[in-house]
Amino acid sequence: MFDIKRAINIGMALYNLSHGELSERSGITASALSNLKGKGNPTLQTMQKLSETFGVPLSVFIGWGEYGQ
Fold first, then answer.
1. pLDDT score, position 1
2. Contact present, 2 and 68 (Cβ < 8 Å)
3. Residues 40-43: contacts with CB under 8 Å, at least 24 apart
4. pLDDT for residue 52 is more than 70
5. Residue 28 burial (CB < 10 Å; 0-12/13-18/19+)?
6. What is the pLDDT of residue 68?
7. Quick check: 54 and 11 in contact, CB under 8 A?
8. Is 2 helix (H, G, I), strand (E, B) or coil?
9. pLDDT at site 7
10. How many CB atoms lie within 10 A of CB 56?
């Protein structure tokens, strides 16, 4: 199962980014990031933006959010 909040938190921790820095670098508003972390229903386009911001392939970003295997 994929958890977008987990994937974002791992990326932020690995790259030492604050919520505001992630918003600025990704082009996703801070409020949209907060909503995303709360509701967890990302579009493919949003996940692609985040993976590009973290500089990893989308598959790696998705792997960060997988749990319960």
1. 82
2. no
3. 40/3, 40/4, 40/5, 41/4, 42/4
4. yes
5. middle
6. 57
7. yes
8. strand
9. 95
10. 17
Q: What are the tens digits of pLDDT across the range 8-50?
A: 999 999 999 999 999 999 999 999 999 988 887 899 999 999 9
Q: How far from chain centre, in Å, is Cα 22? A: 9
In angstroms, the CA 36 to CA 19 distance is 12
40 vs 29: CA distance, rounded Å: 15
Higher pLDDT, 1 or 30: 30
Question: Could you identify the residue written with the tokens 């579009």?
Answer: 43
8: closest CA among 27, 24, 28, 22? 22
